[in-house]
From TrEMBL, chain A:
Superkingdom assignment: Eukaryota
Pfam annotation, one family: TPR_TRAPPC9-Trs120
Coiled coil: none
Descriptive protein name: Trafficking protein particle complex II-specific subunit 120 homolog
Keyword Lyase: no
UniProtKB/TrEMBL annotation, chain B:
Protein name in UniProt: Trafficking protein particle complex subunit
GO (cellular component) term, any one: cytoplasm
UniProt-listed GO biological process terms: endoplasmic reticulum to Golgi vesicle-mediated transport
Pfam families documented for this protein: Sedlin_N
Source species, domain of life: Eukaryota
Coiled coil: none
Amino acid sequence: MEPDVSIETSCMIRIAVLPIGDVPSTLLRDYHSMLLRHCTIPLSTISSFYTEHQKSPFAHQPWETGSLRFKFVLGGAPPSPWEDFQPHRKILGVIGICHCPSSPDLDLVIDQFNAAWRGYSSVLVQRCFAFSPGDSQLEDTKKRENLVLFPPSDRSAQELHLQTMMQDISASLLMEFEKWVLQAESAGTILKTPLDSQATLSSEEVIKAKKRRLARAQKTIGDYCLLAGSPVDANAHYSTALELARLTADYFWYAGALEGSVCALLVDRMGQKDIAIEDEVRYRYNSVIVHYRKSFIQENAQRVSPLTFELEATLKLARFLCRRELAKEVAELLTSAADGAKSLIDASDKLILFVEIARLFGTLGYQRKAAFFSRQVAQLYLQQENRFAAISAMQVLAMTTKAYRVQSRTSISKQSLSDETETGHVDSGKMHHQSVVSLFESQWSTLQMVVLREILLSAVRAGDPLAAWSAAARLLRSYYPLITPAGQNGLARALTNSAERLPSGTRCADPALPFIRLYSFPLHPSQMDIVKRNPAREDWWAGSAPSGPFIYTPFSKGESNDNSKQELIWIVGEPVQVFVELANPCGFDLSVDSIYLSVQSGNFDAFPLSVDLPPNSSQVITLSGIPTSIGPVVIRGCTVHCFGVITEHRFKDVDNLLLGAAQGLVLSDPFRCCGSPRLRSVSVPSISVIPPLPLLVSHVVGGDGAIILYEGEIRDVWINLANAGTVPIEQVHISLSGKNQDSVISIAYENLKSALPLKPGAEVTIPVTLKGWRLFLGESDTAAGKNAFGSMGRTLKDGSSPSLLIHYAGPLGDAQDIETNKSSVPPGRRLIVPLQICVLQGLSFVKARLLSMEIPAHVGESPSSLANMDSKPFGEAVGYSKIDRLVKIDPFRGSWGLRFLELELSNPTGVVFDISVSVQLEKSGNEDNLSVDCAAEYGYPKTRIDRDHFARVLIPLEHFKLPFLDGSIFSKDLQSDGSTAGRNSNFSERNTKAELNASIKNLISRIKVQWQSGRNCSGELNCKDAIQAALQSSVMDVLLPDPLTFGFRLARNGSENAAKLDLPKESDTSIQHIASKNSVIAHDMTPFEVLVRNNTKETIKMNLSVTCRDVAGANSIEGAKATVIWAGVLSGITMEVPPLEETKHGFSLYFLVPGEYTLVAAAVIDDANDVLRARAKSESSDEPIFCRGPPFHVHVNGTA
Amino acid sequence: MQREDAAQLHQFVLHAALDIVQDLAWTTSAMFLKAIDRFNDLVVSVYVTAGHTRFMLLHDSRNEDGIKSFFQEVHELYIKILLNPLYLPGSRITSSHFDTKVRALARKYL
């Protein structure tokens, strides 16, 4: 069988094109292609070369319209045994091609050429074309037969020259045909085919052969007429031949003549293809096929068979009919032709048959059929077990890959770019599931694997390592779930083996392993955030946060969710990172020699990384790089150097694969089978690179670890800021964010300001004062239960620490730039310095109680001031008391109704705390913020609380009393009392409460409980709420003074005792001692003074009385057993005390019995006003207001 | 090895026959397209549903009636599969029930 047969093949003159001497193959192809342009030489152009020697047998030659056709066979062909049957199989001419520069000796060329063409017995015309001869060869004027030198010139001139030569050859051939036909007509030649019996003919057969001879001769003449371009003549001869052959039952030749006649018909009707002709051709060819089949002779079947002719005729008809509309008919023809393959003896015949069937199916548009037969061809090639066959097999299989959808990426990219853009569009949009289905024809995975395996096999045999690598890569990547671990190992070995034969650095379009998908595109770390700068505003960063009246808008929400619209800004020269996930779903260790981001835009330096992936594992790795120039960055995937070849792995492919896997259309999700979590769709954002910006880097001086604070601890932290960028920082602003912002007490913002502009490399340190916030109750409970580390972890995890937000920016661009283009302002940045504060539970407050203590005063001569108890509390008192006293009490005033706040504290921590309490006094002006508690100021040891201990701290509350009793506090209260219940009263009540609360708050805020632990750990205890709760009930008593204050003193002036008593400050005093000094002697008239102070703003009239009691509490003045004799008035003293003044009343006592006595003053206030009533909490207005002073002790010395 | 090759060949033949089905399906209103393709002694019979789902049977026998009944019954089974809301049309049918039923039908008719 012959390849590429068609009905017109019968009218083609076959010419062998042989290279003579050494012709480079590219040049040979080039010359051959030049010849191919002259496949058809019109008869009209050859008339000048044609000379009619005798009467032409081609009477009806169409000199105007006809033409000669040629078929150039490069390299020639072996003679066919069927040459007599079909003269178009004969090599009728030989054209030698000689490339002069490589074969300088023309004589040698001629010799070689002669030797070459003499090998073909049927040659009628021979020429040797010598291209690009040298000067010496041109000058060599020796006439050589058949040698044509093509003078060196440009291509068009050469082509013209060649055309002329071809016309000359055509004319020569035509003349030879005429000669042959004339000879054949006259002499009569014996024409035999291999079909005819080779044995000596029996007499019967000789007669039969004689009969047949004429028909065969006529048929052959017809063939020559056809070759000579005269279809009408040919048809005439064929008609005769058909008649004769039918008569002699020579079916084979009959079919041959019929075939010729169809060809003649087509040549005659060249160009006009109507249905009538088509039907005629179809009818006659069916007949041809039938007759070829009839000529099958059983006895010859082993040796030779007309089957090839039958198949060729089928193919010819199929090719003739090969149109979309007739697909069914053609397919049937081809199917029946394929059936014939079984009976073909010669393997190469089978090969040709399948090639032709595949080609015809391909032209028909039946790609899958074509692929099927191509694969059959490849299998036949592979059976041949040699390298060239393997190469052919590989090439044929490569053609089938499209139909089986296992193409190599290279062929795809060659085929169509439009396809790619189309799929890209599909990716971005929503995919209809049908189109998804069509993307993955996983149903045919077996076929795909078989094809790829065959490609691998043939590539290995053909010695094409790259193709083998590519096939193995595709096989492994796409079908690993269907391949056993052993098979996977084999493929891995095949990849490695192929790579060994490839030069290093070879690239392949088809990626192998691992699977790579985008894991995440980290936005800028908070350290390097980029903030759009609004040059018009002072706070240029403000616009960067989403603004607007709505916290949530559905529109902005949708946008932020859409990853594809995400934008990312990278900065020239600053390293960036991209996380990708690699998966190795196969059963072998995968070592990736290097992997780096593949950036199309070329403005990115990617840093390679090498990774080892164990079997069935996935791993997230960080790929980094540096943007090198301004502009967009397009990241398509990763470039991977694995198995010795460099490949590009695109993210999009894996995304498609995962999408298919999610739909259940792909065999397996490589990431999922490696135990990686479910698909997260991450798309590459649009990335743009901008010019360098300043870069601020921070670290906390003394280590970036957590700052551990106890509750309430106050500490300074130094934060070091350095400009790590290449641009100076010109603007800085610090703000706070996050929880517990109030824990940052102060930031030395000025330090930073003064350092501006911060040049690249410069640094500045700013102190920040922190205070440990209060842990919540539940939090502290658990923290107390756990150890310190546990609670630390918890606190950190909660993210309750505040952060410093530092907005900074480099210089603005040119002023003009800003004018023209707002967007050209380089953006600023934001540095977030998270203050990793870990608050540990420190001292904990257990409870607060209000205690009252009553210490009676001693009566002395000291000018004890009854007024202003708060303003100068211990101006005097200090002197009287020992320094180490906790509470210093004026012994002559006593502390009747003194109240203490008792704080119970516990220390659950592992360290020791020292507590000091300070009370800030309200009155300013001098150094009045003395500590009431003497601890801090007066060297009293601080309260120390050991770990896991409790301690109580007492805070005296006496100095909060207001200087005078004012109606203002009660005014509203009174109002409400006076009026009937109504809205006003409600309002006023509330008002009163608010005022009360305010005063409590004021009181509480003045109490500070500070603690210290170790050398540099100190803070303040937050127990305000507890104090408030404790004080709430009795705040009145604490805050408000009594309306009247009473006091007693000795009125002995100028006595010896008084001299001492006047200098109490120098005296070594103790209360006992004072008492002894001021003692009263029995049996002596002792003058006393009672002092009454009015603490209100109104004059108070009262009825004062003084009593004296002995130790037993019995009244020692009155009664039967009175032990004290008195002079002066002791009861019913009517007094009028002006507001805020004191009034004295003198009297004398004579103690009969020494011992302890107590003086008590009491008064009944006349005409008490509402204020007094309220203070006394009297219920009715009629009730007398009774005021009683604190008891004063008098120690009477002497003997009874 | 030989058997494996043959099994693969069967798939290849079926795959190639799709080309013929795609043209033929539009020329007739019948769902059963009979034997539409062959390679050597392997015959491909095809049944095309209204939704252009193709049932292809590769066989070497010539029992057209049996094949037709087989296809019709398989079609019914397939419709039941399609009614499953969790089944994505065009994807692999993994139901073992379907498999056993089809096998039973094959024993019955082929």
